[in-house]
Specification:
Length: 221
């Protein structure tokens, strides 16, 4: 079975299950408004071959790739480069892959301040180049000392994410929480965790994503 057949059968099966179990009014509100679902592919920076950004984008366009995900490091200095390179192309900046220094749940105020400054610089640049949002992880296993895994820490995280989300909205973008697995991070290991934190952050500028590479601890595929 190829990818197209898999998606078509999955969507058809999901529709049958929904029709059998959901109230009519719910189906009506959730039904697609028009057309077929669209799978939009994006390349992370470094995937496409080419000596220059233009060569990489040419290669991607020939394959029908419509998104480009650069790293966040030094992004502000590259805004003009991306704006010029994307003119007239059917490719947009999808997400920004991290690139900040420090980390959000740091115990050391200096490390936290480093995160605050660099993250906001990346968010502002992401907005200038029309990015969906900046992907972030609150803390990796190797980042220490960090705040303990407690309810108070979660409340603090939601407060901090609210501030980041509101800042992102002012720059026409978002911040995107990415859950990892326990080998990579002790905090936020499932998509449901990230979704709950995004919800409790009470900001439309906070989103979450599921990355199949990291989702080894999900209870359901």
């Amino acid at each position: 079975m190829n990818r197209k057949e898999f998606l078509q059968r999955s969507l058809a099966g999901a529709a049958v299950v929904a029709a059998a179990t959901a109230p009519v009014e719910l189906l009506a509100s959730c039904a697609p408004k028009k057309g077929k679902p669209e799978l939009r592919l994006s390349f992370q920076e470094g995937i496409a071959p080419g000596k220059s950004l233009e060569e990489k984008l040419d290669y991607m366009e020939n394959l029908g790739i419509v998104g480009y995900e650069p790293g966040g490091w030094n992004l502000a200095a590259r805004v003009n480069e991306f704006q010029q390179a994307l003119k007239g192309r059917n490719i947009k900046i999808s997400a920004i892959c991290a690139g900040f220094q420090g980390f959000l749940l740091a115990e050391d105020p200096a490390v936290k301040a480093q995160f605050d400054s660099t993250m906001r610089d990346i968010i502002a640049a992401a907005g200038e180049i029309g990015s969906t949002g900046v992907i972030m992880v609150p803390v990796f296993n190797h980042q220490k000392p960090c705040l303990p895994h407690t309810l108070e820490t979660r409340e603090y995280l939601c407060e901090q994410m609210h501030e980041l989300g509101e800042f992102a909205l002012k720059h026409n973008t978002t911040v995107i929480l990415e859950p990892l697995n326990r080998r990579e991070a002790h905090y936020m290991r499932q998509v449901a965790d990230a979704a709950a934190i995004a919800r409790d952050s009470k900001s439309a500028g906070v989103k979450c994503m599921g990355d199949f590479w990291h989702m080894s601890e999900e209870t359901s595929d």
